[in-house]
Amino acid sequence: MKWLFGARARLRWIHLILGGALSMPYFLLGSVFVGPFIGNQNVFTSTALQFGAFGVALPIAALTAFFPLVRPLSVGAVRALCGVPRGRLADGPAGSGPARVRTAAWFTLHLGLGGVISGMTLAVPPFAVTLIVLPLLTWLRDTPLGLPEVFDHTWAPALAPVAGAAMLVALAACAALAGALLARWAPVLLGPTPADRLAAAERRAADLTVRNRLARELHDSVGHALSAVTLQAGAARRVLDSDVEFVREALTAIEETTRRTVGELDTVLGLLRQGDDAGGDLPGPTLDVLDDLLANSGVKVAYTQDGDPAARAPEAVSREAYRIVQEGLSNALRHGDAAPVSLRIALRGEELEIVMENPLPERAPVVRPGGGRGLPGTAERATLLGGHAEAGPHGDTWRLTARLPVGGDAGGGR
Fold this sequence. Notes:
Layout lengths: L1 H4 L1 H28 L12 H18 L5 H12 L15 H37 L22 H35 L3 H45 L5 H31 L15 H6 L5 E6 L2 H4 L2 H21 L5 E8 L2 E9 L14 H11 L3 E7 L2 E9 L9
Parallel strand pairs: 1-2
Antiparallel strand pairs: 2-3, 3-5, 4-5
């Protein structure tokens, strides 16, 4: 009996009654259209006329269902009351013609079945209860209840409770079957169309792109800061008693590095809190402040530039170039034994070129399981700008090279 009176069956029954309630304005409008054809006769005095008005009401309801917002409202009710999994239903308004037609078909089906079941729910229980109590209240037999003639027989009252209970069970069965029918057809009529699936895939791709951008920012900013701070703290600890001036310089570099990184971290976390609004340009340091990065990087850097890239490169290119240099310095700190690094940044026609080199360590660096994320992130940064980046051994040095397009108006070059 669970499928008749269980929690899911009751919720689906409520969903049908909701459809019946929604059908009432359309039914009243349909009775207005039927009125001229029946003269002075009241539509509510005839079951046939009521069904006629209801038949006129359903096409009117179908027309109103072409409004885009009907689908999200219907989907919300189905998810809450019909037990249909979320993934099988579409999100958002119907944006195409086929989606609106399917939504109109669903709305008509819901209101049609809901109107019938709601009418039965109003009419059947009072009559069934009367039959159940008929043997106990003998005076009911002498009142005009409109019972069929079969109940005039002397043996009929004894069977009246059985008939009343059967009517209630039949009502519950009709409601359960109608609810199951709606639950079965909901994914078909309210499910995502190919256009909906494409739009959802584009939203997921855009969200993943934003998340990857934020992940790269956190990795490059925080990863470099931790590497620099660790190296400088270790060096200061080793000469704590012999070189106070070096310790003072190391602590100053640590302070500057952590202060800058906290600001960058706060910016990224602010974008994370914005959620969907974080899809615009991501703010961050550019080549204008590259000197501060190099001064507090924890390694000696021989820096040369050609063409004034800090002033002439577009902001997006300048920002990504800064991060690429930062990742190169982080790799030199982690794997290059803090050996001196040479850095060259040059504007060559329509391209910004970055070349970083540091000596290979005597011992092979320890590689984390699964590899790091820094160099793949550098390649992604360059690719998103339409450029290219690569890194690897080059003779007895480790070389990181990146080429980023800047447009024909950047100028520069030798």
